[in-house]
Amino acid sequence: MKKARGFFIITGMAGLFSLGLFWLFKTYPMMPLAAAAEAEFVDHAFNIVLWLSIPIYSLVMAALFYALLFFRAKKKGGEGEKFDQSKGRWVESLWIGMSFALTLGLAAFGSIELRRLHASQQTADLEVNVNASQFSWEFFYPVEQQYSARLVLPVGKKARLLFKSSDVIHSFWVPQFRLKQDVVPGKITQLVITPTLKGSYELRCSELCGMDHTIMTAWVDVVDEAEFNDRLKGESW
Amino acid sequence: MIPGLVRGIIAGVISFLGFFFLLKIQLSAEASAAIAYVAAIPVYLAVGGGGTAFRRWLNEEEEPEIHGISRYLSFNSDHKVVGVQYLFASFFLFFFAGIMAMIMRTELARAGLQFMSTQTYSTVMGSHGIGMVLVALTAIVGGFGNYVVPLQIGAKDMAFPRLNALSFWLLPPAVLILVSALFNGGFDFGWTAYAPLSTKGPVGKLFFLLAFATSGFSSIFGGVNLLVTIIRMRAKGMTFFKIPIFVHSIAATAVVITIATSVVASSLFMVIFDRVLNTSFFDPARGGSVILFQHLFWFYSHPAVYIMILPAFGLLLEVLPVFSRKPLFAYPLAVLSLWIIVVLSFVVWAHHMFTSGMWGLLNFPFLITTELISIPTGIMFLASLGTLWRGQIRFTTPTLFAVGVIANFLIGGLTGIFLADVPSDVHLHDTLFVTAHFHFTIVGGTIFAMFAGVYYWFPKMAGRLYNETLGRWHFALFFYGFNATFIPMFWTGTHGLRRRVADFPPEMGPLQMWISVSAFVIFISVAIFLFNMIRSLRRGPPASGNPWNAQTLEWTLSSPPPAHNFDSPPEVHSTPYDFGRSA
Q1: Is there a single domain that holds both residue A93 and residue A163?
Q2: How far apart are CA A94 and CA A92, in angstroms?
Q3: Between residues 41 and 60 of chain A, which touch chain B (CB distance below 8 Å)?
């Protein structure tokens, strides 16, 4: 009977914690607005790990609370019980088995999602050269031979960004696009992004690149195709 | 009589300046500074007291016993003195780096730049980083590793006592040159010093690299020493599964230190060579590779987090059985897990580089190895919960901090999965989500465990009891302040806030203010800790030899222990956690 009490209290507490946390993350989502097709891979991966972590967190915390509440010293100089070793081995094996299953599951799932992400990076409709230097961004459209201070992308088109750095390591990150890629001196790195939502987003350098790393930002305009063509023809923008 | 350390530092600084201006006639400032620094260290050591120790060693003389406060400022080979020296040095750095954190949080309380330029912010942020990294690396291993490990295994001293003194004595020059870097152009590369950002720029960056490399040597000496001590000098009867878990964790840590630290030292030397000798290890225009630096750096710096956390696990599991009055649950499995973590810690480094532009297929193996490390880590939770289970838990301050480690590290560990998972890491990398994650592991794990250890062994080291009420206040405020500071950072990170930046979009204003206020709660809690320690050192009630009723060997001695530890070599017959009654 006493053992059943522990089981019910812990599962009950864990259930309550989980519900509370589920509600919290539903009401205040952890991810900002998504404005690119590739964001789906990231959000999907993030959410799976989140939904899995909540019950694990709740169970361990419930067990911890239970132990602290019910096993506090009741009398001065009282000694604890020596745990039954045979039962201890059951618990150990169960714990290891469960963590193996969970870990391998997560690793397998992560690898599958990563393959999808890799696959999405193969083909593209247009190319933009992105040049980073301390502490500014510059964009070059090779077909139109146009330079620009803002990155303009047509909505719904797969754009391949080719990164080049002229000094130190920088990193391309637009939170609404999710994907991130370091811009490395001495080699060209790339990213394929498909914007899905018109608007202006901030590009933030996210690899510490020196004293003014904070202000190394630029704007990304996602526009429809007609406007994109207009702006590429225009002389100065 | 001026204490040895002060004498050494004065001689060291004077000889550094002398060498520097002499060399400057012919060489560049960079080269002069590097050579002068390397040349000034032997002068500092010789004048500080190492010279006398060396002469005594040559003549095979015994070290004289020194008493009183002045021994803590001398070149002393007693492991208990070295341990206390390490602890004080760590606390000094802890307060220095903590004040840097407070300056950062003051700047970040409001949007826009308040009172700092982005340049000062970069340097303050970098010195907070490297300062706290050094604290986390040395506080438990250097402090308790030196003080407690020989006592727990029943040894007279470390295997190489003078090397032990040397490993501490390399820290003050590292700290000095790090602080002087702030006034010589500062450094703008955080604590990671990525090339090619680190290969050019003011001489302050060189100072940073020298400081880092020096503390690396200190670490290696300490690691080798601990390893030999634990292998060779255990008491009779202390077989593998009768070693206290804290000693196991320090042995595991020492293996990681000796293997990994030499790699980061070499990568730092390569950067120094690029700067001073104009080599091109990391200059792509001349055949170098910037990604190579990251591989070398993280090959050390990922294991480095295990150098920080393994002793914390050991301490957690050392403290819990004593205060729940029960044997350590799953002790052999926990020991095994520590060693599995050692092995795995060397094959996960590239998870810091998922967005670095390395070959894309490398992401897969590193994703998998990183996820695997959660299995042995999970065992620590099993062992902790199992130890508390059906115990008679006494809520002393060490217990509270140990429980804090469990609660915090659970969040730290689970959020690590988000970062191990490549698809979600490409969003989270280099955001405040990462900052929050590693503060939950390193502050929530290592620093909380360090405080558990300070309170646990304070009676042994000081011979006096600390004030329990103040200890609980310290815990309550620290635990609250820490969680209130870092939990919101997960959210701001996913919503677009980068690490290491001095400003943020105005819509995050209220949350940032909340974080800054909470950070000051941590500051207040540490002030309470300081007050408690200073007061108890002078006026605490005297402690008996074994105030906690613990069973490891250090508690069989008086508090504080006599200079030569054990009168006769102790013998061990049972596990150190033979608490409790049979059910």
Answers
A1: no
A2: 5
A3: 41-42, 44-46, 49-50, 53, 56-57, 60
Say how far apart CA B54 and CA B51 lie, in whole Å.
5
Pairwise CB contact (< 8 Å): B414 & A53: yes
Inter-chain CB pairs, A–B, below 8 Å = 252
Write b or e for each residue in B198-225: b if 16 or more Cβ atoms lie within 10 A of its Cβ, otherwise e: bbebebbbbbbbbbbbbbbbbbbbbbbb
Inter-chain residue contact B389 with A67, CB threshold 8 Å: yes
DSSP state of B498: B
Same domain? For A113 and A137 the reply is no
Residue B264 contacts by C-beta under 8 Å, 6 or more apart in sequence?
A: B212, B216, B296, B297, B299, B300, B301, B304
Name the domain count of chain A.
2
Domain check: are A114 and A6 in the same one? yes
Same-domain pairing of A115 and A150? no
**Could you tell me the domains of chain B?**
1-61 (no CATH), 76-556 (1.20.210.10)
CA distance B547 to B458: 11
Chain A residue whose CA is closest to B368: A107
Structure tokens at B126: 């970098």
> Both A153 and A195 in a single domain?
yes
A93 and A131 share a domain?
no
- Would residue A217 count as lying in a domain? yes
- The tokens for A142 are 């090779």
In a domain, A82, yes or no: no
Q: What is the ipTM of this complex?
A: 0.95
> Does residue A135 sit in the same domain as residue A178?
yes
Is B421–A110 a contact, with Cβ atoms under 8 angstroms apart?
yes
Q: Does B418 touch chain A (CB under 8 A)?
A: yes
* CATH number, residue A201: 2.60.40.420
Is the CB of B491 less than 8 angstroms away from the CB of A28?
yes
Q: Which residues of A touch B192 (CB under 8 A)?
A: 208
pLDDT in tens, chain B (583 residues): 688 899 999 999 999 999 999 999 999 999 999 999 999 999 999 999 888 888 988 998 887 777 778 889 889 889 999 999 999 999 999 999 999 999 999 999 988 888 888 888 988 999 999 999 999 999 999 999 999 999 999 999 999 999 999 999 999 999 999 999 999 888 889 899 998 999 988 999 999 999 999 999 999 999 999 999 999 999 999 999 999 999 999 999 999 999 999 899 999 999 999 999 999 999 988 989 999 999 999 998 999 999 999 999 999 999 999 999 989 999 999 999 999 999 999 999 999 999 998 988 899 999 999 999 999 999 999 999 999 988 899 999 999 999 999 999 999 999 999 999 999 999 999 999 999 999 999 999 999 999 999 999 999 999 999 999 999 999 999 999 999 999 999 999 999 999 999 989 888 989 999 999 999 999 999 999 999 999 999 999 999 999 999 999 999 999 899 988 999 999 999 888 988 876 5
A166 assigned to some structural domain:
yes
Sheet holding A126-133, edge to edge: A146-148, A136-141, A126-133, A159-165, A189-193
Contacts of B388 in chain A (CB under 8 A): 64, 67-68, 71
Partners of A148 in the β-ladder: A139
What SS3 class is residue A114? helix
Q: Which domain holds residue A29?
A: 2-69+87-120
Q: Verify whether the Cβ–Cβ distance A71 to B121 is below 8 Å.
A: no
Beta bridge partners of A190: A162
Distance CA B524, CA B513 (A): 17
CB of B63 closer than 8 Å to CB of B53: yes
> Is A147 a domain residue?
yes
Closest CB to B581 among A30, A81, A107: A81
- Same domain as A108, residue A40: yes
Strands (E), B171-222: none
